[in-house]
Amino acid sequence: MRNPPILISVLGFFGALAGFAWLFFGLRLLGFDWFGLFGDVPAFEHVGIWGWLAILGGILWLAAALGLWSLQPWAWMVAMVVAGFAVFEAFLWMIQYPGTGIGLSAMILPGIIILYLLSADVKRAFALDSQPSV
Known about the structure:
The protein is mainly α. It has helices at 6-29, 49-69, 73-96, 102-117, 120-125. The protein is flat, with a radius of gyration of 18 Å.
């Protein structure tokens, strides 16, 4: 197995953190109390579908992180789509809050991630640079 580029490993790490956060949030929404660890923190009950959707989102984030670490082409596409949505959301913030700079500042990191994912080294690592034979 090839080692992924270092920044792909970092993106996978943050994807795994997001996955564990969504799993934790989903279990908490379903009322799991973590063995009384939170004591007085109010538990959400009867949330149902949102808890299960959060758990599903956590599982998908963990799968994407493992895909990035193992250099799967579908994981590269997932990272591109997520970064693209982040750029679109930042554009909407530029429209909603004109002149504040919040949209531009929110667009910087996803834009850098897209540029990095489109670099030749990363495409070669994910085996996306092969030309189809005619």
